[in-house]
């Protein structure tokens, strides 16, 4: 078994880093946009725990940093309000260097998504047993006034003994609006999101029940109910508009169909779900999944040396009784606890931080903008005032009358589409882990930011930053492809865009050389149209993107504006007169 470091060390003493004079960090379990989850040993209670450390870049605006701290506290408060064996247990909330840290239960578990990836479709007893546990967790959450808002296989932990727990309450709502109706809305994972959420409405407990049904669908079929070739926007539209997929007839198909009814009021509640599952659950004590998929013993994180003592001078009888099985799959390391899979924005002020030494920054109302770093999956964060409209844009619904977009003005004019621009600074390396890639770009005030990583079949993964207008009509995009020109040319990007992203539906228009943005060497302007969602249905408006593709060393940068096709000339003016002249690559 490969060796691992014993954890972060204090720069002065060389000893393992200790948080709050109590929790000795051991090995990292997962890293996300807001921090890292570590396995740690509790020196006081002599047990292993998981510690989520929040890290905030020094360059973050104070208001943004404060919102991220509040998100951490909101996650803690959501979990703390639920006491149930099928929900990850919160042990403590402490500080490290003035930032909040969450101390949680540490499990020798796999997440359900990893098990599905390893095993393919699961058996009826496996699915029924895990689904019963999730339904019980949702029942407890609803009783505590908490809506999870991101129920999916990746957030269901399964232990070797068959126990299952719901985790990652980072976007949960308890008078909190974190999915579509908060200060900055986070749309849950598109493939498992409820249609009402995809259509721009609020998420209640019924949305969690849809998530349970979609999770069961994935477990029984081996794939999510909606998956538009990893195109999150297309998936949102499919959830909102397409017929609900059905499983082949089977023992659990009826309950999945009931949970995935488009009318939230017709979905069965957790007690009904559990009653329907009771006859199909595995017998008590039965081996639910192969032992080879789990660590052999104890609660040591995957990859921890079998002979490892807890960090520091800790008696051997207090350490985990073993390490991970050599054949354990990598997802255990990242998902054995509620790893920070994504950065979720939070709703209205949850109250001051319960720690001294920092003045609370008064945050703006629901329309305040916040930049979010997201790993692997697309997250939609939209302001409360714009959430429904922007979601409806994503879902392909008409939002505003067919009025031509205006280029805007900086003089405070109040025309319907007049924009007051300000400079935004972003980091196009935030999802790659390859260091900073800063840029600045002019963006109308009040537009909301989300950041995502995009994986392509042939091209290198990109970091995409999108700024969405308050009415959901327009989007400004900045995208960076690292090391692109080492192996690819401009035409390769356009080909990939056509064949893989839009499935042959792209209409490539004008293409010409333009002055390169500051910090780049050469640029080409392109304009292309695509049917929203990749289809040609009349009710889905077509979109036009005008973009400048620029070279900076081996990197390719894109800055573009996307609007309804009826407004493509206005979109071109916004790009060429406002956005592109002020776009600068700083790195």
Automatic annotation (TrEMBL):
**Where, by residue number, does ATP bind?**
52
Q: Where is the Protein kinase domain?
A: 23-283
Keywords, in A-Z order: ATP-binding, Kinase, Nucleotide-binding, Serine/threonine-protein kinase, Transferase
**Protein's UniProt name:** non-specific serine/threonine protein kinase
Domain of life of the organism in this record?
A: Bacteria
Checking InterPro entries in the record gives: Kinase-like_dom_sf, Prot_kinase_dom, Protein_kinase_ATP_BS, Ser/Thr_kinase_AS
Q: Which PROSITE patterns match?
A: PROTEIN_KINASE_ATP, PROTEIN_KINASE_DOM, PROTEIN_KINASE_ST
What GO molecular function annotation could you give as one example from this UniProt entry? Answer: ATP binding
| EC id | 2.7.11.1
Q: Which Pfam families match?
A: Pkinase
Q: Which PANTHER family match?
A: MITOGEN-ACTIVATED PROTEIN KINASE KINASE KINASE 20-RELATED, SERINE_THREONINE-PROTEIN KINASE NEKL-3
Concerning Gene3D superfamilies, the annotation shows: Phosphorylase Kinase, domain 1, Transferase(Phosphotransferase) domain 1
Tell me the segments the record calls region Disordered: 293-328
Matches recorded under SUPFAM superfamilies: Protein kinase-like (PK-like) (SSF56112)
């Amino acid at each position: 078994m490969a060796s691992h470091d014993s954890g972060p060390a204090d720069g002065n003493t060389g000893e393992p880093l200790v948080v709050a004079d109590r929790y000795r960090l051991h090995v990292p379990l997962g890293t996300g946009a807001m921090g890292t989850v570590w396995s740690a040993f509790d020196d006081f209670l002599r047990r292993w725990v998981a510690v989520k450390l929040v890290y905030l870049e020094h360059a973050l605006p104070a208001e943004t940093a404060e919102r991220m701290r509040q998100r951490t506290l909101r996650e803690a408060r959501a979990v703390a309000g639920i006491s149930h064996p099928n929900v990850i247990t919160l042990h403590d909330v402490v500080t490290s260097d003035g930032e909040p840290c969450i101390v949680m239960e540490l499990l020798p578990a796999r997440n359900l998504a990893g098990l599905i990836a390893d095993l393919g479709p699961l058996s009826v007893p496996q699915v029924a047993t895990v689904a019963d546990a999730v339904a019980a967790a949702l029942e407890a959450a609803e009783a505590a006034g908490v809506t999870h808002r991101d129920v999916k296989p990746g957030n269901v932990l399964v232990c070797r003994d068959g126990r299952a727990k719901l985790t990652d309450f980072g976007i949960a709502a308890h008078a909190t609006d974190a999915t579509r109706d908060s200060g900055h809305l986070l749309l849950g994972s598109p493939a498992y999101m409820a249609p009402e959420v995809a259509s721009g409405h609020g998420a209640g407990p019924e949305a969690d029940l849809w998530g349970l049904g979609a999770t069961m669908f994935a477990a029984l079929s081996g794939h999510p109910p909606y998956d538009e070739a990893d195109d999150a926007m297309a998936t949102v539209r499919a959830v909102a508009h397409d017929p609900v997929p059905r499983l082949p007839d089977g023992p659990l198909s009826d309950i999945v169909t009931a949970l995935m009814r488009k009318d939230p009021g017709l979905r069965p509640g957790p007690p009904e779900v559990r009653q329907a599952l009771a006859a199909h659950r595995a017998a008590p004590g039965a081996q639910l999944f192969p032992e080879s998929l789990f660590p052999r013993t104890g609660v040591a994180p995957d990859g921890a040396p079998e002979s490892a003592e807890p960090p520091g001078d800790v008696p051997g009888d207090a350490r985990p009784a073993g390490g991970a099985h050599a054949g354990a799959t990598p997802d255990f390391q990242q998902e054995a606890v509620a790893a920070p899979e994504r950065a979720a924005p939070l709703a209205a002020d949850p109250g001051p931080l319960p720690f001294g030494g920092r003045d609370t920054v008064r945050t703006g109302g629901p329309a305040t903008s916040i930049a979010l770093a997201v790993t692997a999956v697309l997250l939609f964060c939209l302001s409360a005032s714009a959430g429904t409209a922007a979601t409806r844009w994503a879902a392909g619904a008409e939002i505003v009358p067919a009025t031509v977009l205006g280029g805007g003005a900086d003089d405070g004019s109040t025309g319907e589409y007049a924009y007051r621009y300000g400079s935004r600074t972003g980091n196009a390396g935030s999802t790659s882990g390859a260091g900073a890639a800063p840029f600045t770009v002019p963006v109308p005030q009040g537009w909301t930011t989300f950041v995502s990583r995009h994986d392509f079949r042939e091209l290198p993964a990109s970091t995409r930053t999108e700024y969405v207008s308050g009415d959901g009509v327009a989007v400004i995009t900045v995208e960076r492809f690292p090391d692109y020109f080492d192996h690819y040319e401009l035409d390769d990007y356009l080909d990939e865009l056509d064949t893989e992203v839009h499935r042959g539906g792209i209409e490539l228009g004008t293409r010409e050389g333009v002055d390169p943005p500051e910090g780049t060497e050469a640029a080409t302007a392109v304009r292309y149209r695509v049917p929203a969602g990749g289809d040609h249905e009349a009710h889905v408006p077509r979109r036009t993107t005008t973009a400048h593709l620029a070279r900076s060393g081996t990197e390719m940068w894109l800055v573009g504006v996307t609007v309804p096709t009826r407004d493509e000339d206005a979109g071109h003016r916004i790009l060429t007169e406002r956005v592109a002249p002020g776009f600068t690559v700083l790195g």
